[in-house]
Amino acid sequence: MPLKAHIIELRNRLIIAAIGVVLGAVAGWFLYDPVFYILQQPIQEVAAARGNTADVNFQSVGAAFDMKLKVSLFIGAIVSSPVWIYEIWAFVTPGLTKKERGYTLGFMGAAIPLFLLGSVASFFALPNAVKGLTSFTPKGASNIINAQDYLSFVMMIVLMFGIAFVIPVIVVALNMVGILSAKTLVKGWRIIIILTLLFSAIATPTPDAVSMFFLAVPMLVLFVIAWVICAANDRRRKRKAIAEGTWVDPDADDDLDEYDADDADAGRNDPDAKRE
């Protein structure tokens, strides 16, 4: 296709993706009241438990409308994610081989539901996040929370949980293209645990450990599942290479380097070897 045809194709794909987001936003407009009730519930529960006042505050005449519009678009983007992600895939896939198209299709088939699952899981951690952050309010004081700031906070939590659930899928994708092996994952399991806990701590900026483990534990479980898939793929790749006579042990060079180093040390310590 010439460049102009590519640009037209991209425009058409973007229009379809935008229509999907708008239709999702229309649904989000009617779902705004129950969604806002769910978002406000943790704040009210904390206020009732501590005997003080905590409310979401709209600081201008149009702030409530602006809040409803943003929440509707946010819901629309999440609900319509299969549509616009598919449009991205459909635009890219003509330039891929049949095998690569299979990889990307499998990647999308796993990434989309996992992202949605992570977004849903974030609402279980949200009450603990609100409780932890509002626990610093002095007794007798009130929390008057700006609605826009609170929405930004919730969106960050939802997106972080969604992205976190997709990371193991990226690990499997790297294994499928031969960049990352299951053996490498096993060797770096300590680093994976540390990075997972660090990511969870950053994604859930609360002083309590409960919210962090709401994210860390599912991530580690998904990493284990990803390792099982990678190990199975490595075994399949090895059997195929052996059958074709093209198998090369990736650890052979390391073993050879260790042997050469030991042999060199033995030569330096052997007086007969020096004379030779």
UniProtKB/TrEMBL annotation:
Protein keywords: Cell membrane, Membrane, Protein transport, Translocation, Transmembrane, Transmembrane helix, Transport
Ranges for region Disordered: 248-276
One GO CC term, this protein: TAT protein transport complex
Segments of skewed composition (Acidic residues): 250-264
Cross-referenced InterPro entries: TatC
Subcellular location: Cell membrane; Membrane
Membrane-crossing residue ranges in chain numbering: 12-32, 71-92, 104-130, 150-177, 189-206, 212-232
Basic and acidic residues biased stretches: 265-276
Keyword Cell wall biogenesis/degradation carried by entry: no
GO molecular function, one term: proton motive force dependent protein transmembrane transporter activity
GO biological process: intracellular protein transmembrane transport; protein transport by the Tat complex
Topology relative to the membrane: Multi-pass membrane protein
Any single Pfam family the record assigns to this protein: TatC
Highest taxon above the source species: Bacteria
NCBIfam families tied to this protein: tatC (TIGR00945)
UniProt function note: Part of the twin-arginine translocation (Tat) system that transports large folded proteins containing a characteristic twin-arginine motif in their signal peptide across membranes. Together with TatB, TatC is part of a receptor directly interacting with Tat signal peptides.
Entry's family note: Belongs to the TatC family.
Cross-referenced PANTHER family: SEC-INDEPENDENT PROTEIN TRANSLOCASE PROTEIN TATC, SEC-INDEPENDENT PROTEIN TRANSLOCASE PROTEIN TATC, CHLOROPLASTIC-RELATED
Subunit structure: The Tat system comprises two distinct complexes: a TatABC complex, containing multiple copies of TatA, TatB and TatC subunits, and a separate TatA complex, containing only TatA subunits. Substrates initially bind to the TatABC complex, which probably triggers association of the separate TatA complex to form the active translocon.
Protein name from the UniProt record: Sec-independent protein translocase protein TatC
Species this protein is from: Spelaeicoccus albus
Gene giving rise to this polypeptide: tatC
